[in-house]
C-alpha cells in the first residue's frame, strides 16, 4: 500500500492532471500546484514525503528554488525534478543541491513508480531505524538513572567505610573511644 | 561470503585485541564475518587464516588500519545524550572559567579538553559549540580541544568536518545547524571558525598517555565498554594521571567506575554524573 503524500508542481495543466490521475490510481495522496509559489505555500500547510517539480516554471520560484525551500523545511522531504531532455545539466545541478532523482519529459510513469517505491522503502527503513534508536534511547536513559544512583550510593558507602576504618584503626585512641566514635558516625550518617 | 572457523575466530579476535584493545568474545562470529568480509575478499584471501597472515605481514599496515576502521563502532551524533553537554554548559565550564581566571588581564584563560574516543567528531564539535555559545568572544581564552580515535577513517571524517544529512539531522537544532554549518548539496560542513577550534589525531588508548599532557576536562564515553575489565582499570588509571587535580571526567551515561578506579569520586549535577579525583 502506498501511503506517501506527494506534491506535484508543474505549470502545464495537462501534465498536472496526468500526475494527479496516475499517482492517485497507485494509491498515493497527491496535491497539485500550478507554479512554484503555490507549491511553496502548500509546503507551509502540511507535511509531504515527496515533491515532484518541473525545473522551469513561471514566477520567482522555479524548481531549484522550490527544492531549496523544501530542504530548508525538512531534509526528509525527497524532491524529484522533471526536466526536458535538453536541460540534463540543470537536473544534475539539482541533484547536487539535494534532489533525489530526475525524470525526463515525456514522463515514463512506470519508471517514476519504481523510483517512488525505492524512496518509500528507504523511508520505511529509516523509520524503522529511528524507532529502534528511540527504543534504545529510552532503555539507555532508564539504565543510566539506575546506574548513576548505584554509583552515588556505592561511593557514599565507600566513603563511610573509609571513615570507619580510619577511626577504628586509630592507634592513638583507646578502643572504647574508637567504638563510640564509630557508632556516632553510623547513627548520624545521612542516608 | 568467506566462512570463519572457530579456530579462526580465536586467531582474529586475539589479533584485533592486540592492534586495538577492542575485546570481542567468541559470540561475535556474525560481526566479524559481516565487517571483515569485504576487506578479506579484496585482499584475495581464501580463508581468515590467510587473511590473518596477510594482515600480519603487511608492513604498510594498510590492512590493519582497515580492520580497525571496520571493527570500531562509530555510532555517534551531535549532542548525543544532552546530559553531558548541559553539565559542561551549566556546571563544569563556569567553574573552570572561574578557577582558571588569569592573574593579569593581559593573560588568557587556558583550557584543555580531550575527547578520548572522538569517533567522527560530533562530540568534540558539540563541546566547541557549547563553549562558543557560553563564552561569545573567544579572544580572552586559549582553548585546546583535542579529539582522538583509533580509526583512521573516523579521524579523517572528523578532520574534514563534513557530515551527510543523516549524520547531521539528529541532535542539532535548526538554529545551531544554520549558525555553525554550511550546506554543500547533500553535505553539511562545520564552519571554519568551529573547525579551527579543534584538533583530531589518531591515538590508541592502550598506549601511554605521557605525550598528551594534562587536561581540565576529559570525555571518555562509551569506549571502555569494548575493553576487558583489566584494560578498563588501566585506562581509567591513566586518565586519572592525565587529569588536572581539579579536572573533570565524563563517562558514558550507562557506564560506571565502581570496581574500576577508586581514585575517582562521582558527583551528581541535575540528571548527570561527573567524576573528580579524590
From TrEMBL, chain A:
Keywords for the protein's UniProt record, in alphabetical order = Phosphoprotein, Two-component regulatory system
The domain of life is: Bacteria
Q: Where is the Response regulatory domain?
A: 5-120
GO BP term, pick one: phosphorelay signal transduction system
Q: Which Gene3D superfamilies match?
A: 3.40.50.2300
Q: What is this protein's name?
A: Response regulator receiver protein
Please tell me whether the keyword Aminoacyl-tRNA synthetase is annotated for this protein: no
Pfam families membership:
Response_reg
List residues, modification 4-aspartylphosphate: 54
Amino acid at each position: 500500500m502506498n501511503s506517501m503524500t506527494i506534491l506535484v508542481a508543474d505549470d502545464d495543466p495537462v501534465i498536472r492532471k496526468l500526475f494527479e490521475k496516475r499517482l492517485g490510481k497507485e494509491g498515493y495522496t497527491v496535491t497539485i500546484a500550478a507554479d512554484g509559489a503555490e507549491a511553496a505555500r502548500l509546503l507551509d500547510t502540511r507535511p509531504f514525503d515527496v515533491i515532484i517539480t518541473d525545473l522551469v516554471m513561471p514566477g520567482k520560484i522555479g524548481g531549484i528554488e522550490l527544492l531549496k525551500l523544501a530542504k530548508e523545511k525538512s531534509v526528509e522531504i525527497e524532491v524529484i525534478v522533471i526536466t526536458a531532455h535538453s536541460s540534463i545539466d540543470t537536473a544534475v545541478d539539482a541533484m547536487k543541491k539535494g534532489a533525489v532523482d530526475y525524470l525526463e519529459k515525456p514522463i515514463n510513469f512506470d519508471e517514476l513508480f519504481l523510483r517512488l517505491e525505492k524512496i518509500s522503502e528507504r523511508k520505511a527503513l529509516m523509520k524503522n531505524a529511528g524507532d529502534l534508536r528511540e527504543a534504545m534511547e529510552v532503555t539507555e536513559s532508564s539504565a543510566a538513572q539506575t546506574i548513576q544512583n548505584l554509583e552515588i550510593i556505592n561511593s557514599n558507602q565507600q566513603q563511610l567505610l573509609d571513615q570507619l576504618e580510619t577511626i577504628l584503626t586509630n592507634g592513638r585512641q583507646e578502643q572504647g573511644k574508637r567504638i563510640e566514635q564509630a557508632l556516632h558516625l553510623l547513627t548520624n550518617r545521612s542516608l | 561470503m568467506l566462512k570463519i572457523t572457530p579456530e579462526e575466530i580465536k586467531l582474529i579476535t586475539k589479533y584485533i585485541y592486540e592492534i586495538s584493545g577492542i575485546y570481542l568474545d567468541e559470540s561475535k562470529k556474525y560481526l566479524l564475518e559481516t565487517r571483515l568480509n569485504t576487506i578479506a575478499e579484496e585482499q584475495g584471501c581464501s580463508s581468515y587464516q590467510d587473511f590473518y597472515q596477510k594482515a600480519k605481514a603487511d608492513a604498510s599496515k594498510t590492512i590493519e588500519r582497515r580492520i580497525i576502521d571496520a571493527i570500531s563502532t562509530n555510532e555517534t551524533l551531535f549532542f548525543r545524550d544532552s546530559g553531558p553537554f548541559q553539565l559542561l554548559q551549566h556546571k563544569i565550564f563556569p567553574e573552570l572559567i572561574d578557577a582558571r581566571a588569569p592573574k593579569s588581564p593581559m593573560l588568557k584563560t587556558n583550557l584543555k579538553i580531550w575527547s578520548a574516543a572522538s569517533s567522527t567528531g560530533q562530540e568534540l564539535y558539540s563541546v566547541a559549540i557549547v563553549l562558543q555559545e557560553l563564552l561569545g568572544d573567544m579572544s580572552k581564552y586559549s582553548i585546546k580541544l583535542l579529539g582522538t580515535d583509533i580509526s583512521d577513517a573516523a579521524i579523517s571524517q572528523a578532520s574534514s568536518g563534513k557530515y551527510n544529512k543523516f549524520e547531521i539531522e539528529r541532535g542539532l537544532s535548526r538554529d545551531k545547524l544554520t549558525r555553525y554549518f554550511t550546506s554543500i548539496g547533500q553535505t553539511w560542513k562545520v564552519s571554519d571558525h568551529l573547525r579551527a577550534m579543534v584538533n583530531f589525531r589518531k591515538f590508541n588508548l592502550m598506549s601511554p598517555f605521557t605525550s598528551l599532557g594534562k587536561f581540565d576536562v576529559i570525555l571518555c564515553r562509551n569506549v571502555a565498554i569494548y575493553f576487558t575489565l583489566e584494560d578498563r582499570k588501566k585506562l581509567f588509571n591513566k586518565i586519572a594521571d592525565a587529569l588536572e587535580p581539579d579536572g573533570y571526567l565524563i563517562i558514558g551515561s550507562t557506564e560506571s567506575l565502581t570496581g574500576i578506579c577508586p581514585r575517582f569520586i562521582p558527583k551528581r549535577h541535575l540528571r548527570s554524573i561527573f567524576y573528580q579525583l579524590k
